[in-house]
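Q: Please design a sequence for this.
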C-alpha cells in the first residue's frame, strides 16, 4: 500500500489531533442533548456550547457575544454579505467593492445582489502581484460605497491581503468591512479590532476541527444578524435549525489547540522552505506564480512548463501525493481557475498550475519525498 502524503490542507485539514478528538468523542457519547431543550440534557449541551463559543472568541480576541456559530465559511460569508448589504441599502449605499479572486461563497451572493437587487459592484483584479492593495480599494471607493469584502489569505494562491491597512482606511470613511479568514485562521493572529473588521468568517475544518461548523464575528452584536434561512431563531436569529453541537464543540477544541500551539506554524515555514528547494532547484521549468514574500507559507501555487495540471494531479494521486489545481468547490470545472486568470496568469499558465497546501501534521521527510515524487511525475509526463 502506498503511504499517503496529504498536501491539500487548504481543502480540509485532517481532524486527527488527539487533544481535539478524544474529548469530542466523549461529548458525542455522553452529552447528546438538544441545547434548546428545557431539561438537564439540554442544559448540559448548552453549557458545552457556550464554553466552545468562549474558546472561539479567545481565538478572535473578542467577547463571546460577538461570535455566532454557522455551518462553515460559506454560510458565514453569505450571512455577512447579505447583512452588510441590507444595512447599507437603508442609507442608500448600494455600491460594493470586492475582487475576482474571492471564494465563490463571496462572489455568488454579491453577483446576486448585483443582478437581482440593483447593487453596483467593482470586481477588482489582483494582477501578478497576487493580492488586492489598499491603493486599489482607495481608488474604487465612492460616496455610495456600502461595504468591502476581501479574504485575508487566498485559498488558491496563498496571497496575503493587507487587511489591517485596508481596514483602517475603511474605518475612517465609515465603510463596513467583511474579511474572509477561512485560510488565515490558525496561522495568522486574527484580531478583528486591529483589522477594523465589521464581519469576519472562520471555518472549523481548516484548523483541524470537524466539517460542518464555523462562525461569523460581528463587531455590533447589539444590532444582531439577519438570517438567510428561516424556520427557527437559533444563534440570536442569525440562523435556524438545531445547533450542530458536536461540530461546535470540536470547533472550540480546535480553536483552543490553535492558540496553545502557535509554535506549530514554525514547522509549516520550515516545510515550505524544504518543499520549495526540492521543486525550484531540481525541476526545470517549475515556477512559483507569485512573489513568495507576499504569500502565506501554508498555501503555494506552482506551475510546470509543458505539463497539464489536471493530469499531474491524477499522476500524483496514483503515486500517493494529494494536491489540487485549486479550490475543492470548483474541482469539476473544465476551464482553468478564474482566480488564477484574474491574477494575471494566461490560459496556458493557469492550466499548468497546482496548489500545494501544508499543515503542521506534515513532516520534513514528506516534503523531501513529495518533491521527489513530483519531479518523477513531471519528468514522466513531459516524456510523453
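A: Design:
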Amino acid at each position: 500500500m502506498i503511504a499517503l502524503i496529504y498536501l491539500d490542507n487548504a481543502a480540509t485539514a485532517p481532524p486527527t489531533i488527539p487533544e481535539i478528538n478524544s474529548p469530542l468523542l466523549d461529548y458525542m457519547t455522553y452529552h447528546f442533548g438538544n441545547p434548546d431543550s428545557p431539561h438537564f440534557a439540554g442544559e448540559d449541551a448548552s453549557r458545552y456550547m457556550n464554553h466552545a463559543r468562549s474558546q472561539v472568541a479567545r481565538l478572535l480576541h473578542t467577547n463571546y457575544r460577538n461570535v455566532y456559530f454557522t455551518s462553515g465559511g460559506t454560510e458565514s460569508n453569505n450571512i455577512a454579505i447579505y447583512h452588510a448589504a441590507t444595512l447599507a441599502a437603508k442609507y442608500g449605499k448600494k455600491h460594493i467593492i470586492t475582487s475576482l479572486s474571492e471564494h465563490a461563497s463571496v462572489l455568488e451572493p454579491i453577483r446576486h445582489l448585483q443582478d437581482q437587487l440593483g447593487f453596483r459592484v467593482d470586481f477588482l483584479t489582483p494582477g501578478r502581484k497576487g493580492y488586492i492593495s489598499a491603493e486599489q480599494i482607495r481608488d474604487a471607493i465612492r460616496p455610495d460605497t456600502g461595504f468591502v469584502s476581501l479574504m485575508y489569505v487566498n485559498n488558491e494562491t496563498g496571497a496575503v491581503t493587507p487587511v489591517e491597512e485596508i481596514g483602517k482606511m475603511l474605518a475612517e470613511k465609515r465603510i463596513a468591512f467583511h474579511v474572509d479568514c477561512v485560510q488565515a485562521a490558525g496561522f495568522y493572529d486574527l484580531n478583528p479590532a486591529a483589522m477594523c473588521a465589521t464581519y469576519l468568517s472562520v471555518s472549523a475544518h481548516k484548523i483541524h476541527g470537524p466539517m460542518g461548523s464555523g462562525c461569523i464575528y460581528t463587531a455590533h452584536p447589539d444590532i444582531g444578524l439577519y438570517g438567510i434561512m428561516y424556520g427557527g431563531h437559533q444563534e440570536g436569529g442569525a440562523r435556524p435549525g438545531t445547533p450542530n453541537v458536536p461540530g461546535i464543540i470540536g470547533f472550540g477544541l480546535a480553536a483552543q489547540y490553535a492558540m496553545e500551539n502557535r509554535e506549530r506554524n514554525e514547522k509549516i515555514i520550515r516545510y515550505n522552505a524544504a518543499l520549495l528547494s526540492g521543486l525550484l532547484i531540481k525541476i526545470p521549468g517549475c515556477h512559483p506564480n507569485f512573489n513568495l514574500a507576499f504569500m502565506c507559507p501554508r498555501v503555494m501555487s506552482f506551475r510546470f512548463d509543458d505539463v497539464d495540471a489536471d493530469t499531474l494531479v491524477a499522476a500524483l494521486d496514483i503515486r500517493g501525493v494529494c494536491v489540487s489545481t485549486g479550490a475543492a468547490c470548483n474541482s469539476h470545472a473544465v476551464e482553468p481557475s478564474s482566480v488564477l486568470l484574474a491574477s494575471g496568469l494566461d490560459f496556458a499558465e493557469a492550466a499548468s498550475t497546482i496548489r500545494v497546501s501544508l499543515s503542521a501534521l506534515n513532516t520534513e521527510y514528506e516534503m523531501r519525498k513529495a518533491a521527489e515524487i513530483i519531479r518523477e511525475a513531471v519528468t514522466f509526463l513531459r516524456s510523453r
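Q: Thanks. Anything notable?
A: The mean pLDDT is 94. The chain has two domains: 5-16+262-383, 18-260.
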